[in-house]
Amino acid sequence: xxxxxxxxxxxxxxxxxxxxxxxxxxxxxxxxxxxxxxxxxxxxxxxxxxxxxxxxxxxxxxxxxxxxxxxxxxxxxxxxxxxxxxxxxxxxxxx
Length: 95
Hints:
Elements: H1 7-14, H2 35-45, H3 52-64, H4 66-70, E1 72-74, E2 77-80, H5 83-94
C-alpha cells in the first residue's frame, strides 16, 4: 500500500527520467528534497527496492554521487566525511 498512497507516489512523481530529484549532480542539495534525502525517506517508508523508480534513484546515486560520498564540501571547503549521512544513505541503498 505504501507504493500507492501517501508521500511515496508524490516523491516518485517528482523524479526525473534520469532518476534524480530536483537537480542534476551528486544528489545532496537542496537539503531534504534532493535525491539523497528522498531516497533515505523512501527506504524508511519501506518501499520495494525492486520498483523501477526506486531502482533508478539508487543507480543514479551510485553513478553520480561517488565524489560526494567520498568527501563533503561545506562553504567551498572540503570538510571530510559526514558519517551520519553516509551511514543513512548506505542503509537506504541496502534496504
